[in-house]
Design goal:
The protein has about 400 residues and is α/β, with parallel strands linked by helices. It folds into 3 domains: about 60 residues; about 140 residues, Rossmann fold (3-Layer(aba) Sandwich), CATH 3.40.50.1370; about 160 residues, Rossmann fold. It is about 40% helix and about 10% strand. The strands form 2 sheets. The chain has a 5-stranded parallel beta sheet. Strands 2-1-3-4 form a 4-stranded parallel beta sheet. Helix 6 links the parallel strand 1 and strand 2. Helix 6 crosses helix 15. Bound molecules: D-malate. The site of D-malate has 9 residues, from helix 10. D-malate (MLT) binds next to helix 10.
Length: about 400
């Protein structure tokens, strides 16, 4: 028993995996290892299964999973049924999705941008909150993969979490969708729907919680921009990213902190005191209220919109004062690294959080590249998450 615990500990260390994650992957039982440590009984057959898992996983897992171009075989490369948040992903799983998006970046740049890979599958985009780019991007992604894509627009304010949402989930499930993409104003709504349906669920933004495909597309856009400058970009170690804006209400900030940190970047968060979540240091990001200080030497500056639709009450004195203190201008950008890149998830409020002459800088702004990468990332996520439904070899038993 002690031997096995030691083997598990070393396996987890070698593969950069937490013991909770090990329990989840090996036995679909998260607290398994901690319970073992506290004297949980272990059957011989379970010990054998654990050792077999470690042997199989190890055989395909390179020494440094973080920077590898090889991944565990089959569904172990991405052992999730749903994509609900970056918080559920290991570093190498993030890299796996980014790598899977690369062929789609290429395809999308050709004149014929179509495959039949998802032919016969139905994808429902259920958007309970307004969206332009995310909805379009998921729709284009599904269509370019050959799926039948149906968009369901729900009246934003009339649908609330609770019975109605559960009923909607049951209805979508009864229609036998092969993947459901959800955007909802309530944090946790996508998780609730995922627990009620039989197919993969992709979170296209839930309240203030997470927006995983946005963080992934941001990472892909950054990777491409760094590569275009001849810089190594498989890992963001050494890179300092300043994210400035309405951090309190932003799911983009939350997912990006997790994603960028997982890939090695140092993240600074800047917001007026009223728009900074309490205890933000606990996520490992450095908090700032002074925008100029937060820009000092930053390699990347990501600006966020004021999420007025989520604000109850007055959070800033006026848009004009906000721009004065937190707007990204050419002059301010000079405080960042000399060639710092500028990002924004959109929609932009020009003249509020960002000036037009910064947003449109050809050599520094990668805002349109972010939009481009959004389609490729969503194609990758849809393709990977439907592998089980399509009976792709090695993914039959996927989560
Ligand atoms: C979001 O859905 O959170 C957007 O991509 C960013 C925004 O609305 O400001």
């Amino acid at each position: 028993m002690q031997d096995l615990l030691l083997e598990i500990e070393q396996f987890c260390l070698r593969n950069g995996m937490s013991e909770t994650r090990f329990g989840e992957l090996a036995l679909n039982d998260k607290p398994f290892v901690s319970q073992l440590k506290h004297g949980r009984d272990l059957r011989g057959s379970t010990a054998a299964r654990l050792r077999q898992f470690m042997a199989e996983y190890g055989a395909h897992q390179p020494a440094d999973a973080a920077t590898a171009r090889e991944y565990p075989a089959g569904s172990l490369a991405f052992p999730h049924r749903d994509l609900l948040g970056i918080s559920q992903l290991e570093r190498h799983e993030i890299l796996y999705l980014l790598d899977q998006a690369e062929p789609w970046v290429e395809l999308n740049r050709q004149s014929t941008k179509h495959t039949d890979l998802l032919s016969g599958l139905t994808i429902i985009n259920a958007f309970f909150e307004n969206s332009t780019r995310t909805l379009l991007s998921f729709e284009i992604a599904g269509k370019r993969l050959g799926a039948d894509v149906v968009n369901m627009h729900a009246a934003t304010s009339s649908v609330k979490k609770g019975e109605t949402l559960i009923d909607t989930a049951i209805t979508l499930n009864a229609m036998r969708a092969d993947a459901i993409v959800i955007r909802h104003a309530s944090s946790g709504a996508t998780q609730l729907i995922a627990s009620k349906v039989d197919c993969p669920v992709l979170n296209a933004g839930d309240g203030q919680h997470e927006h995983p495909t946005q963080a992934l597309l941001d990472a892909l856009a950054l990777r491409h921009a760094l590569r275009a400058r001849g810089q190594a970009a498989d890992d963001f170690t050494g890179l300092t990213v300043t994210i400035c804006g309405d951090i309190l209400h932003s799911r983009v900030a939350r997912s990006n902190v997790l994603c960028l940190q997982a890939l090695g970047a140092t993240v600074r968060l800047c917001a007026p005191p009223a728009l900074m979540p309490v205890g933000i240091e606990q996520v490992g990001a450095q908090p700032f209220h002074d925008f100029d200080a937060s820009l000092d030497g930053a390699d990347v500056v990501m600006m966020l919109r004021l999420q007025t639709e989520r604000m109850s009450g007055q959070f800033i004195p006026s848009a004009r004062e906000y721009h004065h203190l937190y707007g990204l201008t050419q002059k301010r950008l000079k405080q960042a690294a000399p060639d710092a890149l500028v990002m924004h998830p959109g929609p932009m409020n020009r003249g509020v959080e960002i000036d037009s002459d910064v947003a449109d800088m050809l050599d520094r702004s990668i805002i349109t590249r972010q939009v481009e990468m959004g389609v490729a990332i969503r194609m990758a996520c849809l393709e990977v998450l439907t592998r089980r439904a399509r009976g792709v070899a090695g993914w039959e038993g996927a989560a």
